[in-house]
Amino acid sequence: MTGEDHQRSESPGTAASPAASSPTLCDLFARTLARRPDALALSDPPNKARVTGQPPLKLTYAQADRAIASLTTQLMNAGLPPGSVVAMQMANTIEYPLVLLAAWRAGLTVALLPQLWRRAELADALGRVSARAIICASRIEIVDHAELAMSAAADTFSIRQVFGIGGNLPDGMTPLDLHASNLTGSTPPQPPSVDARKAAIVSFDVMPESLLAVPRSHVNLIAGGLGITMESALPQGARILSCAIPSSFAGLVTSIVAWLLTGGSLSLHHPFDLQTLEKQIRDDGCNALIVPAHLALRLSGTGAIDARPALRHVIGLWRTPECAGSSNDWLGRQAAFTDVYLFGEAGLFAAQRLENGSAAPIAESLYKAARSPVEIHLTPHGTLALRGAMTVPAAYRAPRADDDLNPAANYVDTGYAARRDKISGAIYITAPPAGLMTVGGYRYRTQDLERWAARLAPGATLTALPDQLNGHRLAGRAEDNARAREALAELGLGPLMTEAFRERGPAR
User: Fold this and answer.
1) Sign of CA dihedral 55, 58, 63, 67
2) Considering the domain boundaries, does residue 508 fall inside one?
3) Same-domain check for residues 202 and 134
4) Which of 17, 178, 258, 424 has a beta carbon 3.0–4.6 Å from 67's, enabling a disulfide?
């Protein structure tokens, strides 16, 4: 499916199409800009120089708007027509929301590329959406992402341009500059009119069969953000600190979309440095924190949450939602905690903890309330399904002639096994989809582990072991672990897989 196909077709998130006057995410930014131009909008991680080599910045709404206008002009001057798909792979710094808003203002669709994807995964994803360009940071930590993007572009016929942000860009890469004062030339081109019903992003879901491209409109994204902000009671003008990289639907709506909906400030943390995180909570006066749920619960147990009186809202992300119901109680006394259950790219829902700190029971009727834009459903074959304005059923199943008569056609089956308690009626999520595993927030197919291990020397094994924090962790064994790492890197695989063959010390 090409970017033009995304732009021509309405996003099938709901049974009835939203009105053409629905606001876009750019409109939400513009409304806050008009009200509070001098208010703080975005803050970089204080350790940004270590992450990307660039100095940390803080921007007001007016300054952010000038940067967005500069980036929009550069993208339009590059000849990218409205509806084109541009792919992004960047760190969790202010360039991420700025480039996103600029791309949307230019009428582009953004394909979100997870940070740890490497050449093999990138080539697969880019080819599926016929991306016209890649935008990346010059480096993230010790990884040369500029060179990685150039290699991925060489593998993808549709790529025509590669944009880089940062220093030491290789030949053939076009620099993107945040500062309008550095632009030269004639009057900037007029941005196109953007329809909120058209695709704003494409994210990628790893399914048992193959990689799946999931387009979502501005309407879908706003619905997802409303589900978070309303359930967690985030106030207008919230000062949000987010550890969620916006390279997935969940990461995007829990950070950037929530920020745009509340019209406050967004401080970004590139995961994870606990000392830096605590410094940001203190120095930025944050009253809302978005982190992985296991980390949030651990911080509440150590008293780190209560040590920050300004912190009133904590949002915990469960990429292993089957673990939420049996998790530890929330021990923070002053901050409310909201569990966000993530189901790959299919969708999510949020539920604030009970007064005793335990996870709220999940009931089908609970999420039919006006405060949530998603309904949940237990399918006849014992899996959890989602329906609502954030979901995109057509991305997961081909339309059929009898869909108008079949209510299940509007649901997306997450594949997560679930059961209903016979007494309380509550729904319990019991297991992830068959054939998939979550490792460090990334999904892998079980069959892929076997396939890649078979490419190594005879006797090599690659196994997924249970892990309390990440769902699973990868462990590899080969006669020469160093050579196995090199071989997997040469195949274009990411560090979660290559580092499964790291050298381990002697058992104690």
Assistant:
1) positive
2) no
3) yes
4) 178
